[in-house]
Write a structure and sequence with these properties.
Length: 479
């Protein structure tokens, strides 16, 4: 199926007249074309957004809320169609797209449709000066949202929903690797009655379309999720124009397991936190540190469970691990397994590309567990973003903390323990934006979401996102 841009409420071909191939990762076949939009396409999207802003920014909160919730309902009503499209485009199991990706995209719209009606600003009475201050929270204008391929509609809408709820108009670009559900979203927005121009979806490569959005002098803010190197590049381009920036970048998250945890829950969750979505989630716990007392037991049990995971066609209901998103990505992940071996890592299971019968050209890899000797090897320091985890033992709390923090990234950490003092000490000392204790990826959309260190700048989620997408203006009245 060929994809088009969605600008000013209608689908249209790109002025660039340039297209890229869209691959189905399950079989390696090109199944459609995606526009590679240029600066002219971004310019017409900007004009549409800019014209819509005057009226959208003055639209009542009740009306904005109603439209966002309507989008959410329409996504839910089209769950099957969207989930299938996501699975085909990305390679993720259909069961995952149906239970997580699309429901969460719907929740994003519902959540921010409700949140905007509760978003308030501050006032300060300057006692003794006969003055009162209050803060207006005004939308920024036209903003840019750029998202990655791992959770395509989920992360795309996580940015768009708060941006439009707050009264901005948006130019959004999904990853060129997984454009399909973002394409389908346009039609849902039209049906929900979103006024034309409020959301404009342009497709294309990061270096052409993405770059054109970031470089546009009148786009006031960029909300970006993707790789750390891309985030640094975007910051360099956007900073001299004083754009507001929210950057959600890579992660290499520690999963710290103590002997006093609830073992069975930990084991089951650790399989998920390692390999959900083929390990292509920035929150996956890819460095597993296990207290020495239970290390050998964990190693045996974990490897046994991982071996049971079924690699298969994404649309097959019995599949646990689908296809990786693209051939270059599969090659990158496989190259890291080789590097790990060269650096002394021991492969406990997986490590090989597999073929799925009937789909021999798909991008499949066995879930892989590697035992490493230290935390300084490349496989422990660099983001692989695939179905590959490492395990190593530790003996003391101090050592576990040092290992966890000895990394340039700081997105999330998972801690398994039933000791309250240890929980508090780790929570305070872990250098990450998110800490999960005795769970993983339990999300409450009101909480601040984002990373420390090279995992990003700023926070998404809840009122943090609405603050990002608004400019505070203080008014001081003397009486
Ligand atoms: O990310 P990119 P990719 C990490 C992960 C992965 C690596 C690369 O390590 O292997 O990033 O993945 C757009 N100006 N994460 O290639 O390139 C691009 O088109 C403006 C972590 O997908 O950063 C896409 O829409 N935009 C991450 C988006 O940026 C540009 C999830 C992300 O692409 C651009 C995914 C430019 N110059 C990957 N260059 C997470 N933390 O969730 C690219 N883009």
């Amino acid at each position: 199926m060929n994809i088009q841009n969605y600008i000013n409420g209608v689908y249209r071909l790109p002025l660039s007249n340039d297209y890229i191939d869209n691959y189905n990762p399950a079989n390696g076949i090109v199944y459609g074309k995606t526009p590679n939009s240029n600066t002219e396409d971004v310019a017409i999207a900007f004009e549409a957004a800019n014209s819509a802003f005057k009226s959208w920014s003055k639209t009542t909160l009740e009306e904005r809320s109603r439209i966002l919730i309507k989008i959410s309902e329409l996504l839910e009503a089209n769950l099957e169609r969207f989930a299938k499209a996501e699975s085909i485009d990305n390679g993720k199991p259909l069961s995952l797209a149906t239970s997580i990706d699309i429901p969460r995209a719907a929740s994003n719209f519902r959540f921010f449709g409700n949140a905007i009606t509760q978003f308030a600003s501050e006032s300060h009475e300057s006692v003794g000066l006969n003055a009162v201050n209050f803060t207006l929270r005004q939308p920024l204008g036209v903003v840019g949202c750029i998202s990655p391929w791992n959770l395509p509609l989920y992360l795309f809408t996580w940015k768009i929903a708060p941006a439009i709820a707050a009264g901005n108009c948006v130019i959004a670009k999904p990853s060129e690797v997984t454009p399909m559900t973002a394409y389908l979203l346009g039609e849902i927005c039209t049906k929900a009655g979103l006024p034309k121009g409020v959301l404009n979806i342009v497709h294309g490569l990061g270096t052409t379309t993405g770059q054109a959005i970031v470089e546009h002098p009148n786009i006031k803010a960029i909300s970006f999720t993707g790789g750390t190197a891309t985030g640094a590049h975007i910051a360099r381009v956007a900073a001299p124009m004083f754009k507001k920036l929210s950057l959600e970048l890579g992660g290499k998250n520690p999963n710290i397991i103590f002997a006093d945890c609830d073992y069975d829950t930990m084991l089951e969750t650790t399989v998920r936190s390692s390999f959900a979505n083929q390990g292509q989630i920035c929150l996956c716990g890819s460095r597993i540190f296990v207290e020495e007392k239970i290390y050998e037991k964990f190693k045996k049990d974990f490897v046994q469970k991982v071996k049971q995971l079924k690699v298969g066609h994404p649309l097959d209901v019995s599949t646990n691990i689908g296809a990786l998103v693209s051939k270059p990505h599969l090659e990158k992940v496989a190259s890291y397994i080789k590097i790990a071996e060269d650096e002394g890592g021991r492969i406990l299971c997986g490590g090989i590309e597999v073929t799925v019968k009937g789909f021999e050209n798909g991008y499949y890899l066995q879930p892989t567990v590697i035992e490493v000797q230290n935390n300084s090897c490349s496989i422990n320091q660099e983001e692989v973003f695939g179905p590959v985890v490492t395990i190593m033992p530790f003996t003391t709390d101090k050592e576990a903390l040092r290992l966890a923090n000895d990394i340039k990234y700081g997105l999330s950490a998972t801690l398994w323990t039933n000791n309250l003092n240890r929980t508090m000490q780790f929570s305070q000392t872990l250098q990450t934006g998110i800490v999960w204790v005795n769970t993983w990826m339990l999300r409450d959309l009101r909480t601040p979401f984002g990373g420390a260190k090279e995992s990003g700048v700023g926070r998404e989620g809840g009122f943090e996102a609405l603050r990002f997408f608004t400019e505070p203006k203080n008014i001081c009245i003397k009486y």
